């Protein structure tokens, strides 16, 4: 794996232009965190007189790439669980879920617990963790309850996955079978701020991948003032 440090959007565009070409026809993939980043890069390349670098270069959103990996690996799933998680938790709290630390009466009667658990579990997924990791971390009653709720949530969702779960499963698929990567040619993946551990694991698993790290300077005193 190659890592490039990039300071500006101009550096991003230069990294795209420097991607190698294999064979007579260029075929390269650039993973971007957001669609507008792709628009900026295209504009920068054209203004720099490097519109030739756009030929054969596809810009793909990182979540879309992870979804395509899972499809190439013949894994059945349905994306979009992020939007359903809070409602699913609310229904779980009204079931006969067995907990040790948290009171089901409190979870049912006090607004906000479903959202709080949804955010917490999503953060844990973003850290590339699973319920069994919480269980192995210790005997805390709170952790055991969170793991139990998480397991029940997964059982309710079945093959409906959040984007963080998609990243983790796609990374595991590539680690088992790198040939499951569906795009031909070199890959440049931009890792901007807010990257989760789950997404980072996915980017690291991409074969022939170069990761572009968007660097940041410490805030100067006058900015803080």
Structure keywords:
2 domains, Rossmann fold, 50% helix, two-stranded parallel sheet, elongated, 11 helices, 225 residues, single chain, alpha/beta, 5-stranded parallel sheet
Q: Report on the biggest sheet.
A: 5 strands, parallel
Structure summary, number of beta strands: 7
- The secondary-structure element order is EHEHEHEHHHHHEHEHEH
CATH architecture of the largest domain: 3-Layer(aba) Sandwich
The geometry reads as: elongated
Mean pLDDT: 90
How many helices? 11
Q: Which class of the largest domain in CATH terms?
A: Alpha Beta
Strand portion: 5-15%
Q: What low-confidence regions span 5 or more consecutive residues with pLDDT below 50? A: none
- Using only CA atoms, what is the Rg? 21 Å
Structural class: alpha/beta
- How many angstroms separate the termini? 40 Å
CATH topology of the largest domain: Rossmann fold
Number of domains: 2
Strand order in space, largest sheet: 1-7-6-2-3
**What is the helix content?**
40-55%
Question: Secondary-structure map with pairings?
Answer:
Blueprint: E1 2-6, H1 9-17, E2 28-32, H2 35-47, E3 57-61, H3 62-72, E4 78-79, H4 85-93, H5 104-109, H6 113-126, H7 131-137, H8 141-157, E5 160-161, H9 163-176, E6 187-191, H10 197-205, E7 209-214, H11 221-224
Parallel strand pairs: 1-7, 2-3, 2-6, 4-5, 6-7
Helix pairs in contact: 1-2, 3-9, 4-6, 4-8, 7-8, 9-10
């Amino acid at each position: 794996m190659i890592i490039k440090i990039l300071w500006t959007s101009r550096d991003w565009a230069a990294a795209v232009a420097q991607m190698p070409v294999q064979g007579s026809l260029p075929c390269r993939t650039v993973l971007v965190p957001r669609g507008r980043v792709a628009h900026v890069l295209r504009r920068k390349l054209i203004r720099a007189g490097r519109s030739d670098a756009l030929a054969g270069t596809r810009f793909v959103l990182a979540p879309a790439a992870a979804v395509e990996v899972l499809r190439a690996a013949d894994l059945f799933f349905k994306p979009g669980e992020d939007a359903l998680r809070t409602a699913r938790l609310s229904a779980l709290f009204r079931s006969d879920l067995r907990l040790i630390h948290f009171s089901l009466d409190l979870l049912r009667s006090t607004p906000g617990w479903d959202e709080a658990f949804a955010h917490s579990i999503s953060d844990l997924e973003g850290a590339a963790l699973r319920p069994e990791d919480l269980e192995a971390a210790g005997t805390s009653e709170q952790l055991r309850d969170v793991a139990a709720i998480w397991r029940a949530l997964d059982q309710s969702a079945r093959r409906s996955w959040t984007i963080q779960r998609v990243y983790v499963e796609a990374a595991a698929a590539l680690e088992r079978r790198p040939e499951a990567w569906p795009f031909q040619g070199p890959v440049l993946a931009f890792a901007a701020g807010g990257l989760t551990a789950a997404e980072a694991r996915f980017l690291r698993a991409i074969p022939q991948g170069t990761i572009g790290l968007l660097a940041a300077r410490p805030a100067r005193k006058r900015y803080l003032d």
